[in-house]
């Protein structure tokens, strides 16, 4: 993670986070450990809770606790009560900054009356931002939230390449299925859906896209994918991937139409995109584990295979986004924490974009790390771009 390393080295020299407590609710992975170390290099105290009961890499959690002295609340396969306790524990540290992945920590800080005391928070996911904007619209958001998920250096890369690749990685690791010649249905054509669809096509699958937004649906069509309503796609798919940020996008009516052997995977943040209650009801109870992380449900003589209990398949069945792309996300996170620390009170409660200068700096450092050089506009070009009505 060369970009994050550069940021961490500067932090070590300048200590911009000295005395700051940073509470994190993030997937506890090797990449997250690098972020935690960069923040600590800048002088911050860090407390870390898991952002999902199934995503923790236990060796990483143990190393952060033992070698770095970080307060870590994360165990893979933990139950929901322990998951919530971990978030409550890091919220109880009265942090100055919160880094969130799904908005459960920010929600908890609001419940504890600790949100007003934050310099600010950052949110890593689309799902979390949907929740926080709903809270803001209802007049309940009490802190500034920086929408890291919407930074240009994040969206186009993290969601498209990171989730796009790791989602297929999770499906393949869990099932060892062949994608070539199969039909893969992507529900949701945001950045993640785009990434999943492109990569599945590259692996030889026929890709069907289901999308409620007409502009995105049109884009999917123009990219050469079949676009249709989800009930029609239910009959066609061999593999289904939900990446909508919504709930019950695959439900009873879909399960009833699916082919024998269909695979169901979710890569959206919460396990609500596949209606698990409806699946269990239809199958007359829980499924049977036929491989690790693969639960087989018998639905009227057809076998449907649910992966990773409907939780983030890319983190539960694979290792999440590779380091090369988390480098961008976590460099953004680190620079956002620095900006919050250097300018306390600059942001009013509400959801704010990542400053464009931070976006550009992260992209610039990544290009540098990749050894890619780009042109710089000449003074004439700058002045041409900045002037009104010039045609010569
Ligand atoms: N979210 C997706 N992939 C991740 C990773 N490798 N580490 C932390 N959070 C992630």
Describe the structure.
- The chain has 16 helices and 15 strands.
- With 392 residues, it is α/β, with parallel strands linked by helices.
- The strands form two sheets. An eight-stranded mixed β-sheet has the order 9-8-7-10-11-14-13-12, with helices on both faces. A seven-stranded parallel β-sheet has the order 3-2-1-4-5-6-15, sandwiched between helices.
- Helix 1 runs parallel beside helix 2, helix 2 runs parallel beside helix 14 (323-342) and helix 4 (80-91) crosses helix 5.
- The longest helix is centred in the middle third of the chain and has 24 residues, at 152-175.
- The chain is globular.
- It starts with a helix and ends in a 6-residue tail after the last helix.
- The mean pLDDT is 95.
- Adenine binds at residues 26-27, 29, 31-32, 315, 320-321, 326.
Keywords:
binds adenine, seven-stranded parallel beta sheet, alpha/beta, 46% helix, globular, 392 residues, eight-stranded mixed beta sheet
Question: In a few lines, what is going on in this structure?
Answer:
With 392 residues, this protein is α/β, with parallel strands linked by helices. The protein contains 16 helices and 15 strands.
